[in-house]
Design a protein that fits this description.
By secondary structure, this protein is an all-alpha fold. The chain has one domain. Helix content is about 75%, strand content about 0%. It contains four helices and no strands. The longest helix is centred in the N-terminal third of the chain and has 32 residues.
Length: about 80
C-alpha cells in the first residue's frame, strides 16, 4: 500500500473491495448473534457460531488473494520476494 508506483485508485478499489467483503461476511453474523444473545439469550448462548463460518473465512481469504490482481503483476511479485525471500 506504500508503493508509490501503484495508482491511488487501484489502492482504493482494493481496500473498498476488502471492506465490502468484510461487511458481507460479518454483518449477518453480527445481526444474528445480537438478536440471539439479546432478545433470545437462552437460544443465543446455546447456538453460538454457525458451522459454516469457517467456510466463509476460507472463501474470504481466497477472494482476498485474487483481489491482488488490482495491482501490477511485477510489483506484486517484487513485494512477494521481499516478504518471503
Amino acid at each position: 500500500m506504500k508503493d508509490r508506483r501503484v495508482p491511488a485508485t487501484r489502492k482504493l478499489l482494493f481496500l473498498g473491495s476488502v471492506a465490502g467483503l468484510l461487511v458481507v461476511l460479518l454483518f449477518p453474523d453480527v445481526v444474528s448473534e445480537t438478536f440471539l444473545s439479546v432478545i433470545m439469550p437462552f437460544v443465543g448462548t446455546v447456538l453460538g457460531i454457525p458451522i459454516d463460518a469457517g467456510m466463509d473465512w476460507v472463501a474470504f481469504a481466497l477472494l482476498l488473494v485474487n483481489l491482488l490482481r488490482f495491482f501490477p503483476e511485477d510489483l506484486v511479485a517484487e513485494h512477494y520476494k521481499t516478504v518471503f525471500g
